[in-house]
Amino acid sequence: MAYMVARATIVAPVDYGVTDERQYHLRPDESALELAGFIPFRLNRLAAQVSDHLSGIYRERFGLDIPEWRVMATVGPVRGCTAQYIAGSTRMHKTRVSRAIAHLEERGLMARATRSDDRREMELRLTKAGRRMYAELVPLALERERALLACMSKDQLRAFVAGLDRLESFLDLRRSESG
After folding, report:
1. I want to staple 104 with a disulfide (CB 3.0 to 4.6 A). Which of 69, 95, 110, 164 is the partner?
2. How far apart are CA 72 and CA 61, in angstroms?
3. What is the pLDDT of residues 125-171, one digit of tens each?
4. What's the confidence (pLDDT) of residue 169?
């Protein structure tokens, strides 16, 4: 999807609700970019930090790495999906998904079964041990999410989620595919 911002100038700072001194201007004539104020960079940095923050739960307590957690979180509520679905919904490369699945299988947390509607595809499911781990992990992850978001008021959280929804829509990321 290509898009371009042309001849747009925002002279006054846009109020993003930030409390620091950074100013946000959109000026096509500027030849320098302050990375620390560049929204795509900030989103990426924030996503990485949030992921690291959350990984403390599943890495230390359950011995899972980030790709394994994402695979389990995707397969857990679905009760049967393909590696291709996981790769698409998590935006992980198929090799990372494949390695995570293999490791979860080695640990006895995940199993493959031939799909009844298409015998060429393998359906992934959590084993009994995988479902037990998932059931223990989910409340901890949701509590960590609540604690993280507690720094925002209800109005800020509503606006934040609305902003994420708009960006995901603009980038054609569907909620049902996000795992």
Report:
1. 110
2. 15
3. 999 999 999 999 999 999 999 999 999 999 999 999 999 999 999 99
4. 92
Two structure tokens written together for 157:
């959280």
The Cα–Cα gap between 137 and 69 comes to 9
What's the CA gap between 148 and 142, in Å, rounded? Answer: 10
Amino acid at site 7: R
* Cα–Cα distance for residue pair 89/176, rounded to 1 Å: 8
Give the SS3 label for residue 56: helix
Task: State how far the alpha carbon of 34 is from the alpha carbons of 5, 11, 40, in Å.
Answer: 18, 17, 12
Gap between the Cα atoms of 40 and 103, Å rounded: 32
Residue with the two structure tokens 């509520």? 77
- The answer to pTM > 0.90 is no
In angstroms, the Cα distances linking 177 to 68, 89, 92, 107, 168 are: 17, 4, 12, 26, 11
Nearest to 84 by CA among 115, 123, 113: 123
Distance from C-alpha of 165 to C-alpha of 178, rounded to nearest angstrom: 12
Alpha carbon of 164 to those of 121, 159, 168: distances in Å? 33, 9, 6
Q: Which two tokens stand for residue 22?
A: 């950074």
Q: Is residue 70 a contact partner of residue 90, using CB atoms and an 8 Å limit?
A: yes
Q: What is the largest CA-CA distance in the chain?
A: 60
With residue 112 as reference, give the H or E element that holds it. Answer: strand 110-114
